[in-house]
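Same chain as my last thread, 112 residues:
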Amino acid sequence: MKLVTAVIKPHKLDDVRAELGKIGIQGMTVTEVKGTGSQKGGKQVYRGAEFEVDFLLRTKIDLVVLEENVGKVINTIRDAAITGKIGDGKIFVFDVERAVRIRTGEADREAF
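reply #2:
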């Protein structure tokens, strides 16, 4: 099993969720986060006042998937989240040692 973590622009969440649903991925955890990468914040204007933004708002999606689905999940997220502009985000993949469904006690593959 793998944990796929994607950090994307907030307005792309609905697109990513819809496309993941088309490939059978339903379960995910979504968190609103702030961060900085190569974009490094910058100046923004709000109601005529200019101010410096150190961290940008992003959406983080965490999904635990079977190893055989990782490539399809990565491609789906990338295709749905891309705008072609700086700050589109990143996708990370981590090993998951164990998963347990709390309600039934099912573990690993059976917990899906």
